[in-house]
Specification:
This protein is mainly α. It contains 16 helices and no strands.
Length: 356
Amino acid sequence: MLGYSLRRLLLIIPTLVCILLVNFVIVQAAPGGPVEQAIARLQGLGADSGIGAGTVDSFNPGTEAPASRGLDPRLVEDIKRQYGFDKPPLERLWLMMTQYAQLDFGNSFFRGVAVTELIAEKLPATVSLGLWALLITYGISIPLGIRKAVRNGSAFDVWTSTAIIIGYALPGFLFALLLILVFGGGSGLNWFPIRGLVSENFASLSAPEQVIDYFKHLALPVTALVVGGFATLTLLTKNSFLDEMARQYVMTARAKGAGERQVLYGHVLRNAMLMVVAGLPNAMVHVFFGGSLLIEVLFSLDGMGRLSYEAAVSRDYPVVFGSLFIFTLAGLLIKLLGDLCYRLIDPRIDFSSRGR
C-alpha cells in the first residue's frame, strides 16, 4: 500500500506538467490577452472591445494588430514587457514551470497582489461551502439510502424517492433564487442573510454569536448546493445495500440466527459502502470546485469559483494557472485519499499489484 501511494504521489508531478502545458498552449493562443486588454483600456475602449480585437498577438508578441495603431510602439513594448510577453513562448513556459516548482504563482496582472494571497483570501468561502455541503449530503443520504433499502417498496421508499428526484431535477441556481425569495427577504421572511460569508460586524461579536452568524450566512447557499446531490448518493446507497442483501453470505448469516441489525451493520455495511466510497473523490471535486460558481455569485460569496471565472474572462493568466494548479493538485490528492479509504473499509483490497 505504501509503494502504491508513493507511485501515485510521484505521478502527480508529470500529470500537473502535462495539464499546465496543454492549457498554456490553449490560453496563449486565445485572442484578447492581457496585452490587448491593457491597450484597449488606454485607447478608451471597453474591456470587451479588446477581446477578439487583437491588439498584440499574445502567442506571437512581435505581431502588431490593427487595434494598436496610433500608439507609441515604445509604449506597446513597455506593456508587453510588463506582462512578460516580451519573451518567446517557450521561455515564458519554462519560467512559469520553474516558479511553480517553488509554489510561486507570480502576481496577478490586474489586481496587483500575489496569486497565493488571492487564493488564500478566496479559499475560505469555497472550503466552507464545499465542506458543509459534503458533510450534509453524506450525513443524510447514507442513512436515508440504508433505510430505503430496508423498507424497499414501502410508502416511505416511494415518497422519499419522489422527493429526492424532484430535488435532483430542480437546477441549483433556480432553487437558490427560490430560497432567496422565500427566506432572504424577497417575500417578507428575512430569516437569513444573503450576502457574504459573515456580517460586517463579525469581529465585534462574541464567540457564540460569531458561530451563529457564520452558519446563518451559510444556511441558504449550502442548502442550494446540496439539494441536487441527494438523489445520486441516496439511490446508489440503496441499490448497493439491496445487491448485498441478496447475496449468499447474507442468507447464511440469517440461517445461523443472526439478527437483522447484526446482518445489516455487521456484514452488509462494509461491502455495500465500497461503491459509495468509490464515488467520494468525484463528489468532493464537484462540490469543492465544480458546482459553486453560480452559488457564489447569487449569494455574493467571494470564493475560488468567482475568482477563476473573472480571471479567465479578463485573461489574468497568473491567476488562471495558479487556480488550475491548485484545483488539479487537490483533485489528484482527493482521488488518492479515496483509494486509501477504499482500502480502510476493505483490507482485502491490494493495490500493490497495480502497475506490475
